[in-house]
Amino acid sequence: MRILVVGGGMGGTIFANNLARRIHQEMKAGKARITMLSASDQHVYQPGWLYVAMGRATPDELVREQASLLEPGIEFHVDPVEEFHLAENHVKTKSGKVHEYDVMVISTGSRPTPENIPGLKENSVNCYTAENAVQFFHQLADFKGGRIVVAVGLPHKCPMIPLEVTFAMHDFIKDKGLLDKTEFYYTYPIGRVHSLENVAKWAAPEFDRMGIKYETLFNMKEVDGKNAAVLSEEGGTVKYDLLVAVPPHKGQEVIEKNKLGENGWIPTNRNSLHMEGEYGKNVLVLGDTTNIPISKAGSTTHFEAEVAAENIAAVIKIGRPVREYDGKVFCFIEAGKDRATYAMFNYTTPPQPKAPTGAVHAFKMAYNQLYWASARGLL
Amino acid sequence: MSTERVVDARGSFCPGPLMELIANMKMMAVGDTLELLSTDAGSAADVPEWVKKVGHEMVGTEQDAEGTWHIHVRKAK
User: Fold this and answer.
1) Where is the FAD/NAD(P)-binding domain (chain A) (predicted)?
2) How many other CB atoms are there within 10 angstroms of residue A259's CB atom?
3) CATH code of residue A38
């Protein structure tokens, strides 16, 4: 069986490594082959950019050579896919090579698109790329007081970031001794401070305790850089001295160009993870790339990748898949520089977040290093 | 000609039905309608609240025998 993995991020890497260990005998015997195509020879731990923005990590600490993370036997090419030919079961890459497959897994991720809101890119900082996170830190480090506004676009990757970045900035400013000169103003698209109701019930009193003001039902329409103001779809106007954005996201351009999904999100069955439609029988989709209405987060793609790998291995060994994805998501929530909690939920059970503790924060810091074992499919 | 898209947000706690609706409305043309499927009872109240505040149009809301809310919204601007 020829298994083609498109994308060398978290989903593709965990899937390929997990599967390779399950089917190493078949790979050794030449009965199965795993090929991965990626746009980069580097693998980035994207959740680390929050720490870069707070001056607690540098971008190089978050990067490993992709080839060093892969199980022996996985064929890896830095040669991104440009054309998907689903009817013929092959893809064509940037270099012009054609790769045929029996099963394809697409895990190309998402990208921030601040340019989709007029004025946002030029007038805000964010922690969604290494470059932006460094710029964010410089602006925060140079901040002398004033109003810091957090504004959130939809859809976005990592749903905890709006809260985490707010709590983290609060502690940063507190440590600088500028709390009395700083006003925090948090905005959010729906009628509470977070999409998860129980998380919102915990976070709103935390904001109140810290003196963080908030406005809900606030969807960015445009940013007026000249007057330093964010205008909302709902008719609101909020002035800022430093604008921290959670930009809206899209899937990758190659998905849109090949008409696999509107805005780069591929219609995907929420349980089997197969692409919807006539060519979905041998195509699976993972992580941010899907249109499944759950969190675009690393843990989502991690758990999906495990299900997909187990199922493909089972198809090879016993002729049919064995599991369905139940919507499991586990997100840490950093509640400042030294406390954290978490939210775990699936399609049927909402999260019940606990009060943040230093122990959960320590676990999160440990996980930031353990991630490399996770990417290797070991954890 | 206007078209209707269906957004199946059943079982979505995060980002949740309203955030799914808002994200999808951005991809629609003025006059198009959307049917939101939600198992969150809160959607029957928070979707109309947002739709009214922004100035779109509620077309209708009903709950089927299995408890799923079907909320129809038209993009007005």
Assistant:
1) 1-290
2) 8
3) 3.50.50.60
The verdict on A345 touching B (C-beta cutoff 8 Å) is yes
Domain count, chain A: 2
Domain with A299, as residue range(s), is: 2-109+252-328
Q: Domain end: A202, A217, A248, which one?
A: A248
CATH number of residue B39's parent domain: 3.30.110.40
Tokens of A377: 């499919």
pLDDT in tens, chain A (379 residues): 999 999 999 999 999 999 999 999 999 999 999 999 999 999 999 999 999 999 999 999 999 999 999 999 999 999 999 999 999 999 999 999 999 999 999 999 999 999 999 999 999 999 999 999 999 999 999 999 999 999 999 999 999 999 999 999 999 999 999 999 999 999 999 999 999 999 999 999 999 999 999 999 999 999 999 999 999 999 999 999 999 999 999 999 999 999 999 999 999 999 999 999 999 999 999 999 999 999 999 999 999 999 999 999 999 999 999 999 999 999 999 999 999 999 999 999 999 999 999 999 999 999 999 999 999 988 8
Distance CA A353, CA A348 (A): 16
State how beta strands A98-100 and A90-93 pair.
antiparallel
Instruction: Name the interface residues of B facing A (CB cutoff 8 Å).
Output: 7-9, 11-20, 22-23, 26-27, 42, 46, 49-50, 53-54
For residue A73, give both structure tokens.
């036997």
